[in-house]
Design goal:
This protein is about 40% helix and about 20% strand. It has 15 helices and 16 strands. It is α+β, with helices and mostly antiparallel strands. It is elongated. α8 (about 335-355) crosses α10. It has helices spanning about 55-65, 170-185, 220-235, 285-290, 295-310, 310-320, 320-330, 335-355, 365-375, 385-395, 400-405, 415-425, 430-435, 440-455, 460-470, and strands spanning about 5-15, 70, 75, 80, 90-95, 100-110, 115-125, 130-135, 145-150, 155-160, 195-205, 210-215, 245-250, 255-260, 270, 280. The mean pLDDT is about 90. The strands form four sheets. The protein has a nine-stranded mixed sheet. A hairpin with a 5-residue loop joins β11 (about 195-205) and β12 (about 210-215). Bound molecules: zinc ion. Zinc ion binds near residues 25, 27, 40, 43 and 153.
Length: about 475
């Protein structure tokens, strides 16, 4: 039997929008300390209440659809998706079915240097249900379930792809790029609590689809899919048939578990929601929104490569943080672009990651970086001490001038190095003897001593040359 397996994966991704108010009422759209405190009769689904569409959500949905190259439907409406579960007290969820905001889009993903187009089937708006908490862990073991309606009515965008991913890695790359586009559009912040969740459809060798639900974030998707693909392969090897069904993903166990036989979309009995009026998204409205879409990550990538002639890796790293990319452009007017890109994506990012700070949250000012790059260009500071300056900027934010002065980090003057070299030679006659009897390595020891004495301010190469000159004098 051939081990060659063809895999087809499609993703349905939900992103919670960070709007001031909920989708259909004026309750604050945010976490609250007390459960069931950011609620009103509308988001609690009381009979007789009328939902009213948050226009800001509509705008964000159109903006995102356009960024994903979707066609916009000029007239849209909302539908009721009927199901019975305590997280939705109306017994239906308001969503879009027949006519979503956007359809037939595409996104180009890049995995291991290879570019591939993934079709976006649709993008629509829907409301998040309430949060259920099964006391005692999971639904089988728990004696009762608590419900928090603070989340009910949080606006969601759902983005559905064509089943065109062939590997878990491709799916992960797509989600990372999608999250980056959301960030550029200003509808998402990586450090916030607003979640990106996906359901995945997987079929192997053209067999039936298995749906894996509730995969949170961008990296979990790769694990969940890898698990599910090997599970299905094992089944096939044992001659078992794979039937269409739905499984739940357990992130702690990195495994999937059967929930129910998959219902079809028809089972939900979608009906038009008469409480909400039809929305017109005419060309003029679309144009207005389109003109406010900022430069997107892939556009910035191409422009940076062309304008600054940087390597792919450096550009990719810069554009993952839009604010860093913006500051890079300011700095590139006065400094060598490759040098600053290397410092920003290298030592600076490393320090930020170590301290778990995003560049946009740090207090670093562009001028501080500019001063540091000036010192480096004039060779007034060693690379090692420049790294120290960056660490200080992140950990105890203050200007480069203050840091180099307080920490005494500028390169030593010529005569200062001369006198340290003399001192080190005088104090280490043993090393001198070793060198004279042919041990070249003894020099390294002496250079190390000079570096230590000068507190890193001496340049190691200069120190080495000075030592050799003195010894052979
Ligand atoms: Zn409400």
């Amino acid at each position: 039997m051939s081990e060659e397996t063809s895999v087809m994966i499609g993703l349905e991704t939900h992103i919670q929008l960070n709007t001031e108010t909920k989708l259909f009422c004026s309750c604050p759209n945010k976490d609250a300390e007390e459960p069931n405190s950011n609620v009103c009769p509308i988001c609690l689904g009381h009979p007789g209440t009328r939902p009213k569409l948050n226009k800001n959500v509509l705008e964000q949905a159109v903006k995102t659809s356009l960024a994903l190259n979707c066609n916009i439907n000029e007239e849209i409406f909302f539908s009721r998706k009927t199901y019975f579960y305590p997280d939705m007290s109306k017994n239906y969820q308001i969503t879009q079915y027949e006519l979503p905001v956007g359809e037939k889009g595409e996104i180009k993903i890049k995995t291991e240097g290879k570019e591939k187009k993934i079709g976006i089937t649709r993008l629509h708006i829907e409301e998040d249900p309430a949060k259920t908490e099964h006391v005692g862990g999971n639904i089988e073991k728990s004696e009762y379930t608590r419900i928090d309606y603070n989340r009910a009515g949080t606006p969601l965008l759902e983005i559905v792809t064509e089943p065109e991913f062939e590997t878990p890695k491709e799916a992960r790359t797509y989600l990372q790029q999608l999250a980056q586009i959301f960030e550029y559009l200003g509808i998402y912040k990586p450090e916030s609590n607003y979640a990106i969740k996906s359901d995945a459809n997987i079929s192997i060798n053209g067999g039936e689809k298995v749906e894996v639900k509730n995969i949170t974030g961008t990296s979990e998707v790769e694990k969940a899919l890898s698990y599910e693909i090997s599970r299905q392969k094992q089944m096939k090897r044992r001659g078992k048939e794979i039937k269409q069904h739905t499984r739940n993903y357990n992130a702690d166990m990195a495994s999937t578990k059967k929930m129910r036989d998959k219902e079809t979309e028809e089972d939900y009995g979608y009906i038009f929601d008469p409480d909400l009026t039809t929305q017109k998204l005419n060309k003029q409205y679309q144009e207005k929104i389109n003109s406010n879409i900022p430069e997107l990550p892939h556009e910035k990538f191409e422009r940076f490569k062309k304008e600054y002639g940087l390597k792919d890796k450096l550009v990719e790293s810069l554009i993952t943080e839009p604010e860093m990319a913006g500051d890079f452009e300011k700095l590139a007017k006065e400094h060598k672009s490759e040098t600053i890109a290397s410092w920003m994506t290298g030592e600076l990012k490393k320090t930020l990651n170590y301290n778990e700070v995003e560049y946009s949250e740090s207090e670093i000012e562009t001028e501080w970086l500019s001063t540091l790059f000036n010192l480096l260009e004039k060779d007034n500071i060693s690379d090692r001490n420049a790294e120290k300056v960056l660490r200080q900027m992140v950990e105890q934010p203050r200007s480069t001038e203050e840091i180099v002065e307080q920490e005494d980090l500028l390169k030593a003057e010529e005569d200062e190095v001369d006198s340290i070299v003399q001192e080190v030679i005088d104090e280490n006659p043993g090393a001198l003897e070793d060198y004279n009897s042919g041990d070249e390595g003894a020099i390294n020891f002496l250079v190390g001593q000079v570096m230590q004495e000068s507190q890193g301010k001496a340049d190691p190469k200069t120190a080495r040359n000075k030592i050799i000159a003195k010894i052979e004098d």
